[in-house]
Amino acid sequence: MNKENYIIRVVTIDDYDAIFELWNASEQSRRALNPVDDTREGIDRYLKRNPNTCFAAVMDGKIIGVILTGHDGRRAIVHHMCVHPDYRRMGIAGRLVSEAEEALKAEGIQKIFGLVFKDNDTANDFWESQGYSLRTNLNYRNKSLNERIPAGE
């Protein structure tokens, strides 16, 4: 499989079904989903707020990777990043991150953060390789405003 046979493009809501299928192809991605924000309506709302900072890797018409990044005008967050298990180790994740970072810079964003499960060694190693440092001086606080979304551990 030639790793140059894919393109990176902006995500649209028309991609939702393919992206949801991709997220469900990996246990680590599946466990990061929630029943409100990751529905078609939730992703549509997210993409309307962040129309230029979310990207898909597409090969032969199939979405094989995706990154959803957004910002509040000050800081950006990587909300979801996933590459299908069959297409890993091809540089796709790094290209998705690079595209998102460039789009965020173009919107004046100077700092990005992301959340990774502590036990996801592969993802933690990847983000470290991309220059994302581990912050140990902060506590991540979480409160769910919707009973359908778990508060987390």
Characterize the structure shown.
The protein has 153 residues and is of the alpha+beta class. The chain has five helices and five strands. It has helices at 16-23, 27-30, 40-49, 92-106, 121-129; strands at residues 7-10, 54-59, 62-71, 76-83, 112-114. Strands 1-2-3-4-5 form a five-stranded mixed sheet, with helices on both faces. α4 (92-106) links the parallel β4 (76-83) and β5. The longest helix is centred in the middle third of the chain and has 15 residues, at 92-106. It is globular. The model has no long low-confidence stretch (mean pLDDT 91).
Defining traits:
5 helices, single chain, alpha+beta, 153 residues, five-stranded mixed β-sheet
